[in-house]
Design goal:
Layout: E1 4-13, E2 16-25, H1 41-58, E3 68-70, H2 75-82, E4 89-100, E5 108-122, E6 131-133, E7 152-154, E8 160-162, E9 167-168, H3 169-173
Antiparallel strand pairs: 1-2, 3-9, 4-5, 5-8, 6-7
C-alpha cells in the first residue's frame, strides 16, 4: 500500500499562486526507509496499554513499576546517525547500562542490572553501517548484517549512540 504525507504548499493555477495541500509519497514497506507505520492517538494508547497489561500478567506480584516501558532518543544524535552516508534507518539494541564514575582511573563501569539501548545506522539492506563479513568485505548479497553477526568485522567508523536511560513504568505513571 502506498503511503503519503500531506503538507500545505503553494501551486500555480492560471498564473496565480494558490495555497494547496500536497501529497508526498513516502518509501514503501519493502525498503528500510519505509519501515514502520503511523498510528492515531487511540491506537497508540491501545497498544501501549495492552503491552503494560501483558507485563503485569507476567509479573509475579503484578507490579510492573520497575519494568522498562519507554526510551528516549535525542534529536541531534538521531539526526547525526541518519545523516551518515547510505543510512536508511536505525536498529536499536538492548544493552547493559554504562555509568560514569567520576573516577579518572576507571571513568565508566558497566551495570548489568540496568539496561540501555544502543542505536546504530543501517543501510537499505538492513546492514549496519561500517560492518562487513570478514570473508565478504563488499557485503555482496548480504542482508540484515549486524556487528553481533559471527564473522562480522568493523570496516569503517560509524556512529553508535546510547539512548537516554530507558523509562520505567513507575517513572512515567507518576508524571503529572
Amino acid at each position: 500500500m502506498d503511503k503519503f504525507i500531506k503538507a500545505p504548499g503553494i501551486s500555480s493555477v492560471d498564473g496565480m499562486l494558490q495555497p494547496v495541500e500536497i501529497n508526498y509519497k513516502l518509501a514503501d514497506d519493502t525498503t528500510v526507509a519505509g519501515f514502520g507505520e503511523f498510528f492515531t492517538e487511540s491506537a497508540t494508547k491501545e497498544i501501549i496499554r495492552r503491552h503494560w497489561d501483558s507485563l503485569a500478567q507476567k509479573a509475579v506480584d503484578g507490579n510492573i513499576d520497575d519494568s522498562i516501558v519507554a526510551i528516549e532518543i535525542g534529536k541531534e544524535m538521531l539526526m547525526m546517525i541518519l545523516s551518515q552516508k547510505d543510512c536508511q534507518g536505525i536498529r536499536v539494541y538492548y544493552a547493559s547500562s554504562v555509568q560514569a564514575t567520576g573516577d579518572t582511573n576507571q571513568p565508566f563501569i558497566i551495570d548489568d542490572q540496568k539496561c540501555t539501548l544502543i542505536a546504530v545506522g543501517i543501510n537499505e539492506y538492513g546492514n549496519e553501517l561500517g560492518v562487513a563479513l570478514e570473508n565478504n568485505l563488499s557485503n555482496t548479497n548480504v542482508k540484515n548484517l549486524s556487528l553481533m553477526t559471527p564473522g562480522a568485522v568493523i570496516v569503517d567508523d560509524t556512529m553508535r549512540s546510547e539512548t537516554n536511560p530507558p523509562r520505567t513504568f513507575a517513572s512515567i505513571k507518576n508524571i503529572r
